[in-house]
């Protein structure tokens, strides 16, 4: 991916064929069971894979992490018929998936979502819209959280929609600061008819499914930040060695040496925190959700700081699009916002501390 990262960003190319090559290596359903085409690997394996891929293109890897989360949700909460209908073509990335939770009026307050699904016979009729959907309009399968019952989290169910269903449409492609190798659009439901057989789990189970998916999603997006920070440290290291000012390489300046040492130390600390949380999630530990929130908060904040410092070390060159460091800065800025903002991560951690 690395040789094409800048081109995909500039031309806003969704690199479908490259991702299908990744799927041939098993990266389309990394932690999905092998009987439906998944790789059956652990959450720790997944974190290491996404960190490595992200050094090549953070934006594309971040989309792949969302796709993997969707396939895992179908594999884990779907019945046998649903698993066999959806998972094989998603694991091979013949088809791509999008996760639809956020709405124009419900971001951090996800449990207040308004998209409604009225049951009529053996179908649901959906009305409403979703905002900021990664892959929206270009992907084939949409894992949608919608309201089938009363207010609050217990009224939410999870439906799987397919592109082409009557009443399913998309907004304009958003112009974004980063993440330009994946399209982002609103997803709109206007009397969209969905078979009851496309519901994952029971009615009212949707919010629980969404939150369990996001625990893994937070590890995945933190792992993408690690990869961007790792690549940025290497770019800074190279620039300090090559660039000369005041008659000597920047690498001779002790202040810059110390900053580089701090960047590497913060990266290793963040990496250990993410991998610890990945293990906890894999083992089903009681504290897994709060460790995932801590890891997402710490790693995405620290890694953005590392990338930003690497840009500063490049001076004016760091602000040119010819230099990759600026793209890492742009691509990981949003990691502090999505999969639950870092303010919500603090809320989850604080709530856990004060309730225990």
TrEMBL record:
Residues covered by the Acyl-CoA oxidase/dehydrogenase middle domain: 99-192
All copies of domain Acyl-CoA dehydrogenase/oxidase N-terminal, residue ranges: 2-94
Statement: the UniProt record of this protein carries the keyword S-adenosyl-L-methionine: no
Active site (catalytic residues): 339
EC number(s) on file: 1.3.8.5
UniProt pathway: Amino-acid degradation; L-valine degradation
GO terms assigned for molecular function: flavin adenine dinucleotide binding; short-chain 2-methyl fatty acyl-CoA dehydrogenase activity
Cofactor(s) needed for function: FAD
GO cellular component: mitochondrion
Enzyme class: oxidoreductase
GO biological process, one term: branched-chain amino acid catabolic process
A Pfam family matched in the record: Acyl-CoA_dh_M
The Acyl-CoA dehydrogenase/oxidase C-terminal domain, residue ranges: 204-354
Keywords: Branched-chain amino acid catabolism, FAD, Flavoprotein, Oxidoreductase, Transit peptide
Family according to the record: Belongs to the acyl-CoA dehydrogenase family.
Role: Isobutyryl-CoA dehydrogenase which catalyzes the conversion of 2-methylpropanoyl-CoA to (2E)-2-methylpropenoyl-CoA in the valine catabolic pathway. To a lesser extent, also able to catalyze the oxidation of (2S)-2-methylbutanoyl-CoA.
Protein name: Isobutyryl-CoA dehydrogenase, mitochondrial
Lineage of producing organism: Eukaryota, Metazoa, Chordata, Craniata, Vertebrata
């Amino acid at each position: 991916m690395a040789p094409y990262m800048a081109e995909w960003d500039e031309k806003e190319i969704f690199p479908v064929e490259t991702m299908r090559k990744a799927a041939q290596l098993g990266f389309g359903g990394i932690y999905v069971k092998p009987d439906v085409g998944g790789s059956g690997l652990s959450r720790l394996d997944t974190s290491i894979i996404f960190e490595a891929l992200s050094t090549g293109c953070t934006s594309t890897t971040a989309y792949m992490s969302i796709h993997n989360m969707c396939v895992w949700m179908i594999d884990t909460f779907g019945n046998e018929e649903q698993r066999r209908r959806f998972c094989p073509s998603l694991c091979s990335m013949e088809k791509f998936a999008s996760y639809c939770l956020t709405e124009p009026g419900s971001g951090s307050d996800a449990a207040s979502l308004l998209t409604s699904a009225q049951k009529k016979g053996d179908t649901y009729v959906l009305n409403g819209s979703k905002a900021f959907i990664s892959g929206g309009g270009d992907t084939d399968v949409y894992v949608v959280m919608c309201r089938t019952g009363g207010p609050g989290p217990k009224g939410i169910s999870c439906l799987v929609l397919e592109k082409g269903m009557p009443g399913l449409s998309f907004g304009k492609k958003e112009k974004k600061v980063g993440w330009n190798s994946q399209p982002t659009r609103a997803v709109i439901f206007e009397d969209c008819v969905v078979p009851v057989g496309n519901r994952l789990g029971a009615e009212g189970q949707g919010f629980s499914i969404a939150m369990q998916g996001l625990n893994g999603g937070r590890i995945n997006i933190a792992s993408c930040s690690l990869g961007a920070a790792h690549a940025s440290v290497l770019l800074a290291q190279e620039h300090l060695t090559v660039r000369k000012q005041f008659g000597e390489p920047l690498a001779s300046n002790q202040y810059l040496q110390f900053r580089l040492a701090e960047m590497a130390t913060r990266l290793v600390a963040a990496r250990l925190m993410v991998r610890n949380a990945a293990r906890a999630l894999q083992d089903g530990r009681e504290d897994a959700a709060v460790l995932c929130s801590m890891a997402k908060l710490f790693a995405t904040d620290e890694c953005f700081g590392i990338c930003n410092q690497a840009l500063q070390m490049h001076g004016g060159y760091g602000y040119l699009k010819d230099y990759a460091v600026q793209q890492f800065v742009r691509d990981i800025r949003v990691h502090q916002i999505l999969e639950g903002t870092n303010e919500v991560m603090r809320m989850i951690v604080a709530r856990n501390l004060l309730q225990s």
